[in-house]
Amino acid sequence: MTHYTKLSLAVAAALAFHMPAYAQQDTTDTTEVEPERITVTGSRIKGVDLEGAQPLVVLSAEDIKNSGAGSLFDLLKDLGQLRGGSGTFSTSESGATSTATPAGQAAASLRGLGPASTLTLINGRRVAASSFAAGTQNFVDINSIPLAAIERIEILATGASAIYGADAVAGVINYILKKDYDKAELNLSYGNSTASSDEGSANLNLIWGQQVAGGNLTLFADLFDRQDFKATDRDFSRSPLLASNYSYLAKGTPNIYFRSTDSGNEIATPGCATPLVTTEFNEQICAYYPNEDDVLQSPLQSTAVGLMFNKDLAHNLNWQTDLFYTRTKSTAVSSPAPINQLNDAEGAWGPENALDVFPGTTRDNDFIYFGDELIWLDPFTTPTGQRLFGFQFDARFNTPRTVDITTEALRLVSGLSGSYGDWDWESAVLLSRSKSSQEAVAGIYNRYKYHAAIAGELCSDGSIASRDGNNLSCSSGANLVGSYNPFLQNDAANEARLALAQAIPTRDGLSTLYGWDARISGDLFEFNDNIARAAFGVELRREKITDEPSLDAQARFENDYLVDVFGFGSSFSAASRNQAAAFAEIYVPLTAQIELLTAGRYDHYNDFGGTFNPKIGFTYRPVDELVIRASWASSFRAPSLTQAGVKLRTTTARYDCSANELVNQFYCGGQGGTSSVNVLELGNPELEAETSESVSLGFAYSPTTNTTLTVDYWQFDHKKLVDTDLTAAMARSITDVTQRHCGLVPEGQTGISLNPNLAVGRDRFNVCQILDSQGRNITAADANMQEILTNWVNSTPARVDSLPLQRDHVILLGNVGQQEVKGVDTRLSHTFNFSAGKLGLDLDWTHYLSFERNKAGSDEIESLVGTYRYPRNIANLRLSWHTDNFSTGLSANYTSAYADDISRLRRRNLDEMAALGVLDENGERDVSSWTTLRSYVSYDFAKASINFSIDNLLDRDPPKVYGANRGFDSINHNAMGRNYRLSFSYFF
Predict the structure, then answer these.
(1) Mean pLDDT of the chain
(2) pLDDT for 654
(3) Displacement of CA 246 from its chain's centroid (Å)
(4) pTM over 0.90
(5) Which of 250, 292, 304, 813 is the most buried (most CB within 10 A)?
(6) What CATH code is assigned to 57-228+298-333+405-439+508-639+689-721+816-987?
(7) Which of 473, 467, 261 is nearest to 382 (CA)?
(8) CB distance 653 to 726 below 8 Å
């Protein structure tokens, strides 16, 4: 016998209250009617009253309608369970390099544990991961799930691997599709900001359902188009908060590199597009600020079509098939690529006559007089082997890196279900695929062709000339085009030479998922006059991912790890995996008030073995209005296919000098801050699965059908996190001789590469020749590294105060991290009934008690709550008014203050902040709390509805964040400002 409590009826009433007006039923009759036996997220057992037994968040069709969202990311971004940290991302975090987060894609991350720790389901079954990983974390691109096809969303923010298997470390988001639709619906919407710039987005979708061939066929089509949003479109992000937050690599107007000057300072050349900047070395240089090329939101075009077919084949036998196809296109834009030497070292070489375009430049045998400065001329070798004399310069290309991304997602699920006695059964096959491609359409240049162009060795067909002694020749029909001068601006012929060096690298990825499952659920036995129920199931799954860039974007051992192009690293991986699983779940009503829900699942992977994960939960109902609930579960995340199958991934990695004092001393000169270098990442077949234990304890209280209060404490203990930790690798190199190398890291080895031939002006310094007091250099296992560092600093100019890193440090992925997160969710919902309508009051509040994680490169645990991107409190308060045809609402979204990320800034940044007076008496700063208002109004006609919503009603700018390059936190805050959306629906 199923017992429906007041709590169950309260939740059911709340869900009915949120249904669209055209679908509402008369609710004056309170007779308890046994509903259809369904499954809710978090359990496979059908027909058990689990309302209130677990902290499940449900977004209804009405919630989706009133959100004004044009995409799933827009819908989910303000939920407290998805806030905190930097796990949930959108195209605001994308970049144009091949290893950046792909533009046009988005991911959801529960509790800030990362997108790979959140399991994404559609109708309770998996979705293929994006073939393009975020770093090395595979994730499901939620932009590939058509919003038009979704009936509701169920979010369970607690460990659920005992039910669903891998990746449910932080929980599950289950997207429930519409079915049994028996009408037609046309939806149109348009949204934009109220600023003078155009960030408009338009959406058109059509849904049609009808009885066809003895079953119900539902068809849908969805079109979405969104403009880009640039940092220069807003006053607060157009210019940097700190003038000292510049790059030495100027755009279009090079600086003369300090190693080529007699003074040891960088020198700005005329024609700088921005005011000159005075550096910490008292230099006057042309600087670059990334704001001018920063795209806060990439453009996105999406097309989706699909169908849902449901048919009763016979008594107790049903066939259901879901099919949809999505195609998205986007363009990523990021800062112009830095220009390096042929061997990728800093300071590209220019010929001695490159400065002749500036009046007053004179040359002598070994140097150039450039104004009041003397520039040394030194030999360098061109791509054809020619020996020329010139000098070095610091610059980046003038054109931002621009990459087009196309993603196609296909998903097909077809299954049979039925019942036999007291048991329900179902079985289905699944095919899910995600195919993506990237093409660099601007701003990417071939390193060899670029340097050939500077040396006058490039042919008119874009090839590099052949050299025979002192003679250069081109292939038939081509001719030498002359020398490209990087200092000559706004010259068409000069720019045409540069254009011949442009490259169009590509990247293609494919992720496939094949699956089969079979499940049964039903009555197990009678216990204390109640029925114990259970669910059992088996699953088979095969996954495969390939991610292959074009040859010119791949790092290759035989080419000293060099990538042929500037600014477009490679991410080359390929892996496949077979998985089999069996699970059991049992519900036992121990007494009339106490219920037990247990589950266990065993997963076996052909590449790293098996894992068993249990879950146990109790609910206690002392009265019908109250349920006290508690659960414990273990979960796991299998190493992603990208992590297991990375062949050689060229990227940049950031190291944190403030997180490890050894690294700060040896590699940062005690300056602190963070920096990035080129690294190579290697997959590791020996990776272990990440593990997690989660605890949830809370209650749900509904004194009436109009009031529900839930309070839940939750905790995650997440261990064996997979990552590459450059800071840790640098720390190991100081104590482990096998991890430090003079020059490039030998093939098959890992470690840090030290530059053996550092040039400062006309002087050369070789770190491998620096000895300790016993005559040992860095390649000796027992070398005294502290003495070598001291001797190195004493032998080099003041500017070189740390051991010189080279490039392409080789790092193996490993289980290097741990994190523990604790918090409390509070939800209050109350409805006031009046003769004229209903007034709703809803509060959602997430309070982080702690978020602890080991520091990069250290076993030391740092507390993150209250630090950058980890607000302690996230809340949403909503007031709504509903009548038969009219509804309106006002909500407030609150994000609490947290510390600015100033510990990783450079000294010059901190000095400027002190001068601005933005630091407190302790030399610290807090990012202000942020509250925005959102309102909507909706009216339902007989066959139509109209909805108008405004977000950030008061047009509040995001709080200033001096520690962020953008000047604000693009994860927890939004730069869009006031924006609106108008939606119209017509029902046929």
Answers:
(1) 88
(2) 77
(3) 25
(4) no
(5) 250
(6) 2.40.170.20
(7) 467
(8) yes
